[in-house]
Design a protein that fits this description.
Order of helices and strands: HH
Largest sheet: none
Distance between the termini: 87 Å
Shape: rod-shaped
Mean pLDDT: 83
Structural class: mainly alpha
Helix content: over 70%
Strand content: under 5%
Number of strands: 0
Amino acid sequence: MTFFKNLVRDEQGATAIEYGLIAALIAVAAITAMTSLGGTLSGTFQNVNDKMAPGAGA
């Protein structure tokens, strides 16, 4: 019976789960930000490429 009382009082598992959820949330936010930044960065490089293309043959 003491084992079950200690198991109920033990909060280490709950803390580990909370840290895991926080890490997952941070990962989702980072992936979202990097995806958005990647699209913007791709557009910027395409713009630079378009403006440099006429001068490449001269």
